[in-house]
Amino acid sequence: MALSEKARQILNRQDLIEKRDLWFDRMEKLFRGENTGWNEKYVYGLNGIVSHIACDDTDARLRVENSLEALAAQYEALENETYFRPLCVEHPPFGVHFIDKLLGAEVYFYAGQWYNKYLNTPVGSLKVPVLENDPLWQDCMRVAEAFVETDVALPLFGLPTIASALNIAINLYGERILVAMIEEPEAAQADLNTINEVLCDIHAWYRKTVPQKQLQPVISWNRTQPPGYGQLCGCSTHLLSPYLYGEMVAPLDNRLLEVYSCGGLIHLCGSHTQHMEIFRNMPALKAVQLNDDAARDFKKYYEGLRSDQIIYLNPCEGMSVEQAMDICGGDRLVIAADLDAPVLKKN
Q1: Dihedrals φ, ψ of 336, to 5°?
Q2: Do 168 and 192 contact (CB within 8 A), yes or no?
Q3: CA gyration radius for the chain?
């Protein structure tokens, strides 16, 4: 079905765009460290609405329009003064193994999620693929271009999982890459550099194709940042010593975030506090997103990061909204969830 005229009108409604942009303005002020209602007196929930674009071999324009049609039916979510509920479409081919597939890994679906088989090639032999000839990347380009061609100004467009050089290297090689970082550092660094080059190129293509006001990295509805900010997945950094991360990986992470005009965010979900000094000294790192074990370390991040680095907190057992508020009073904080109480005042 083509996008209905009703859905098109909803997704171009100026009043809804203004509501979205009001939230963006608040977030931009938060990132600039200005005293606003967002970061000084109140905590707001961030928990948007997402409609996934199908990952199949049907017409890209049709898949995008079907996703937008479903999203338009939920427009009332944005009519909200307490929570930021951005309306998002997201294209998630192969989940967290999207880049693995582009780099030649065998990716398969089992028991409800995607997996990949490790490469058998030696560490250090990875080559930059010719993306323009890859059917998966061709489809991703068609989907993004179809989104732009629909000419709807309200929805955000979430990227596939582009992850990070270390995450992808571990997907491709398993423990072999970790051993190689110690025993064959030149080979390991060569592959990490190759992966990061691919990641940066893909981000750069999306940046020049999708309007900045609508472009968001992965998990666009729950890690929403102001326009112009990027994102990478730092999950696997908990496996590294500060020395290995600082020498071999952090410069690549910073380079990836530099693809975006404003820098960006690192997603963390394990034990990463050994890298606090490195995070603090990464110029392009403007925010961290914490969940699970990382969320329970919220106090360490709040006290250990720069005063201009924002924290996105997914509350969990061991770090509730109330506990986080006791620690920071709402300063530099985005609660990436609905709040039990609509507004929590700063003590």
Answers
A1: -90, 65
A2: no
A3: 20
